[in-house]
Amino acid sequence: MERRKLGSRLEVSAIGLGCMGFSHAYGAPTERSEAVRAIRAAHDMGYTFFDTAECYVGQNPDGSASFNEELVGEAVRGIREHVQIATKFGVRHEGRQLVVNSRPEEIRRAVEGSLKRLGTDYIDLYYQHRTDPDVPAEEVAGTVADLIREGKVLAWGISEADEDTVRRAHAVCPLACVQNRYSMMARWHESLFPVLEELGIGFVAFSPLANGVLSGAYKASDTFAADDYRGAMPQYGADAHEANARLLSFLNELAAEKEATPAQISLAWMLAKKPYIVPIPGSRKLSRLEENAGAADVALSAAEAASIDFALDTMGMSAVFGGSPRKE
Ligand SMILES: NC(=O)c1ccc[n+]([C@@H]2O[C@H](COP(=O)([O-])OP(=O)(O)OC[C@H]3O[C@@H](n4cnc5c(N)ncnc54)[C@H](OP(=O)(O)O)[C@@H]3O)[C@@H](O)[C@H]2O)c1
């Protein structure tokens, strides 16, 4: 698979694997050996960039915890130097609410736990999962700079960061990337692109398929388990199927033209827009891991991506989890 640079040093596969769904937010966790096999198979398909977080923890049917970092760590044993592991600190879940804490002592506690669960002595990319209103960006950056000096972390980023946070954090400890929600249905962070270009920072796109909707694989009649977050997402809501019908038919037309699938077009579109964008779609199914990886081979020019933008600008669509398509 094509490689992309995030910041000045970190190089990753153009499409990374979002591992969250193996144990968090999409219903019951995948059985451990099956998840490990899938992540390992993804590496064989060309993915080298694996995204996880301290707080991606689910409950197995027997009541035990499924720690996402452990799955990733086990899957990359023996190939550690050929992969890039991204994990995150600073968030814990209380039900579905996120509680933030990026105090220096908390970051130090978190990094030791992540290293242990991952079974490694360094983290390629360490993110602040959400900004913390009680801890200045400079203080977070200073703490991570210490971890980099100690060799525990190679590069860092911030998730759901705005321009002010990016500038202040980057001035203390250069960022490799930001990781924000981004898809054809969630484009409000495009306003950050000029800032990233000015500072030489990459952009990792989470939920790049709008949690699966942009694949076109879901029907209005689909239902989700109570512990599957999709059941409460507006893009899967009662009226969403109809609201997104035009978008899906547009995607199907493009897919037919390019002999690709709607999911591949969704990912290829953002790859074509900027050389520093790296989507991290998540799937627990081997065929979809393969399909999503194939997006890196779909030839879409910057001009074609721009004409897709033009069409999206005026297309009605439902709200998406985390925001509305019209939000700036
Ligand atoms: N920084 C943050 O705050 C944050 C927040 C959310 C997510 N993330 C990261 O971003 C990664 C991806 O985000 P996400 O899971 O929210 O959204 P996503 O990648 O847009 O969508 C994942 C969902 O789409 C389905 N899917 C994936 N590929 C498909 C395909 N080709 N055809 C049909 N369905 C497909 C998956 O189901 P199956 O498993 O059944 O295929 C899964 O339910 C996560 O794994 C996580 O690492 C980060």
List keywords for this structure.
globular, 8-stranded parallel sheet, alpha/beta, 11 helices, binds NADP nicotinamide-adenine-dinucleotide phosphate
Major sheet strand order: 3-4-7-10-11-12-13-14
Radius of gyration: 19 Å
Unreliable sequence segments? none
Ligand species: NADP nicotinamide-adenine-dinucleotide phosphate
- The helix count comes to 11
How far apart are the first and last residues' alpha carbons, in Å?
33 Å
Report the mean per-residue pLDDT as an integer.
Answer: 95
Give, in order, the helices and strands: EEEHEEEHEEEHEHEHEHEHHHEHH
Strand content: 15-25%
The biggest sheet amounts to: 8 strands, parallel
The helix content, as a percent range, equals 25-40%
State the total count of DSSP E strands. 14
Shape: globular
Class from helix and strand fractions: alpha/beta
Overview of the structural elements:
The protein is of the alpha/beta class. Helix 4 (137-149) links the parallel strand 10 (123-128) and strand 11 (153-159). Helices cover 36% and strands 18% of the residues. The relative contact order is 0.14. The two termini are 33 Å apart. It has helices at 32-45, 68-75, 104-118, 137-149, 163-172, 193-199, 240-243, 245-258, 262-273, 286-293, 302-313; strands at residues 3-6, 10-13, 17-18, 49-51, 57-59, 65-67, 84-89, 91-94, 97-100, 123-128, 153-159, 177-181, 202-206, 277-279. The mean pLDDT is 95.
